[in-house]
Structure formats: C-alpha cells, structure tokens
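REQUEST ID: PR-0412
SUBMITTED BY: lab tech R.K.
PRIORITY: routine
TASK: structure prediction, single protein chain
INPUT:
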Amino acid sequence: MISLSLSAKNLAVITIVILVAAVVFLTSKSTNHPKNFFSYGVSFSPSYATHLGLDWKQTYLSMLTDLKVNYLRLPSYFSEIEPFQNQTNFEDLDFMLDQAKVHNLKVLLVVGSKQPRWPECHLPDWVKNQPQSVRQELILEFIQKVVLKYKQNPTIWGWQVENEPLFDFGSSCDKPDFNFLKKEVALVRKLDPKRKVVVTETGEWRLWNEAMSVSDILGISLYHKSYNPILGYINYPFPSSIYILKSDLTRKIFALQNQKTIITELQAEPWLKDSVTQTSLEFQIQAFTPLDFKNNLEFAQKTGFDEIYLWGVEWWYFMAKFNHPEYLKLAQNLLN
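STATUS: complete
OUTPUT:
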C-alpha cells in the first residue's frame, strides 16, 4: 500500500519546488531537453524469469542477442547469493556478468537488501528475524562482499545502492531509513571510489532531494499505468516537462554535485493487481498494449534523460512463449 502522508519538512520542500518551478516555467522558452542520441538498457531478474516459467539462462542469452541494448541492470539478491550464513554462491551472477562482457554491455549492479522485483526486499530467512540493528549490519557486510568481489570487473560501470530505498513499498521491508542509506552509500564509496553511485526514486510519488543529495546519478522510475490498492488502476497525467523541472530544480537547490538523471525503470509491461501467472493474457494485453509500449518510450525520450532502462523484458519473452511475440518484436524494432 502506498503511503500518502507527508511530513512538514516534505511539505516545505514541495512548496519551495513549486514556487521555483513556476518561476522557471514562466521565464523559460522551453522545458524540453532535446537529445539526438539515447542509450538503452533493460533490467533482468533470473528469479522472475523462472517465476514466469522460463528457462532463465536461455532467456538471458536470447535477450543478449535479440536486443541491441547498451546497458543492463542486474540484481545481487541477498536471499539467493547467501541463503545460509557464510555460504555464498555467486555462480549465477558470474554467469550473467561474463555473458554481458562477451556482448560488450555495461552493467549497473544493484547492491543492498531492497532490489528490483517483488517482494522488493530480498533478505534470506536467517537475516529476517534478527533485530533491525543487526539486520542493517548484516546488509552492510553483504554489500561489502559483493563490491569487493566485483570492483575489478570492467563490465560494471556503477553501483545502484538499494532500489527506491526511501519509498515505503514492498513486502517485509523495514521503514525507509535515510541515515542507513547514507551509511550504505558511504561504504560503497569507500570500497570503490572510482565508480558512480546511483540511488533510485519513484518518479511519481516522492520528492528526489534526499536520493539526489547522496548520489552521483539519480535513477527514476517512469510509469503511466499502474494499480494502487487505494485508487485502483490509474493513469498518471504528468507531462514530460514535470520530470524535467523536478530534476533540474532539485539538483540546483539540493544537490549541485549530482551529475545527471537517468530512467532506471521505464514501464514496458502491465502493472497488474494479481501476478502475471494468475491473470489472463487477454487482460494483460488490455492493461498494456503495444501502443502503450511505444508511447512510453517516446514519452521517456521527451524528458531528455538519455539513459533509459526498460522494465519488462522477462514479460516480453513470457508473452512470446504464449503466441504473443508482438512485444518482443516491438522492442527489437524500437531498440535496434
């Protein structure tokens, strides 16, 4: 359930942003940042591909040859790499990184406990029942293991610390903790000062000042159609200029050191009330049509954020498996 409550601090920030946005909007000739070139990527989750009944390795290899993308965003799930204390298995992540290197792709590797795909927080059972202070120490230890293992890997261009860590969303997640996020970011910077640190935020439901203030690069999600337990199915009405203004103003006011904004999660699959495997194909197509796919990519381009990671590649292969290859073909045409 999405929390709609705002603190007094956030209300003050919103007021400032709105006032400055109004001034900038009224005094500028254009709020668009036109670009001639975009770099595209996809996020891939082996466990989600498996959940959809796909052979994840075969799907991953097919993806690398079918789609001419520049970037990949890959998870490092705590629950899968260290399901038992002090027993780590990096075999699957090694495989994905090795294959990415073969195809000359650059990887944004996610570290931490909250990572892409449900249930959002991917903690092993032996960590879940610990007190919060202990859990946080164990998360820091796990981040250190991942960064130290891969800091010499030239395929990785940056570290994404957690996934939308300040957004209160997910199953069995701790409440957002900005102070802990700062500790995580500081640890990653200490372990690998050469690579960029990315922190992500929801594009529609929160301010970006905190995430932007601790990161080199801000990553945002961008959705047009979603499901909310309170509001039901909704279409976000925001124009591309809102994302541009929000990014520019937040950076100028709160985070001059932040270098740019990228789209780490562009909706390219339906957001469903129930899981994909429990929803009819007909409803899924109605909830997210090929035209929605095309329109979302065009909308993302209008923001001028020139690095765009699409969200839904596993679903494209799932639909193709069930005689709906139009999404995969569209992705090939749009991205190639």
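NOTES: DSSP finds 14 helices and ten strands in the chain.
REVIEWED BY: pending
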